[in-house]
Design a protein that fits this description.
The structure is a single chain. This protein is mainly α. It is built from six helices and no strands. Helix 3 packs across helix 5 and helix 3 runs parallel beside helix 6. 68% of the residues lie in helices and 0% in strands.
Length: 167
């Protein structure tokens, strides 16, 4: 019996989930990638502040700019961490890695003000944990198949996280 069309009358419509599947192992690897990014950011902020921006901006000739050294160190460290996070998530074949990295970076921008009063090892641990949680949260949200819906929910969560961190 030969058919003239591609359409199969016996085919049954299979419902498609509104979420892309993510196993617990994938979520755990994403959180660990975020912890690694947090380590890169924390160590980068410390080293850049101490050896580059602090050394350049805290000279006697430019003492007024010395207060900006941690901010500049945070900016460079966050950019380097975002690049590392994007490469890590893409290597793991994570769904929408750029959305996850951008959301986590924007949400945690200015994290140096939160950890500035801590001892360096507690600050590094706090940054690692916060980045791990952020990567896990935004990777979980990015699983939504409808990109517009995922983007809107991500923006709302980013605003909420920024409000919690700043306020």
């Amino acid at each position: 019996m030969k058919r003239d069309s591609v359409y199969d009358e016996t085919a049954v419509a299979v419902p498609v989930s509104p979420f892309v599947g993510m196993s617990f192992g994938e979520l755990l690897r994403t959180v660990l990638c975020g912890v690694g990014v947090g380590l890169v950011v924390a160590v980068g902020m410390f080293l850049l502040n101490k050896f580059i921006f602090g050394a350049v901006l805290c000279r006697p000739q430019s003492i007024a700019e010395c207060a900006q050294a941690p901010t500049y160190a945070m900016i460079v460290a966050m950019v380097l961490g975002a690049i590392a996070g994007l490469l890590g998530l893409a290597r793991m074949r994570m769904y929408r890695p750029l959305l996850v990295v951008l959301a986590a970076t924007i949400a945690l921008w200015g994290i140096n003000s939160i950890v500035s009063g801590m001892v360096w090892y507690w600050a590094a641990l706090a940054v690692m944990v916060i980045f791990g949680l952020a990567y896990g949260l935004f990777a979980w949200i990015a699983r939504i198949r409808n990109f517009v819906m995922a983007l809107v929910i991500t923006i709302v969560v980013v605003v909420l996280v920024r409000f919690l961190l700043v306020g």
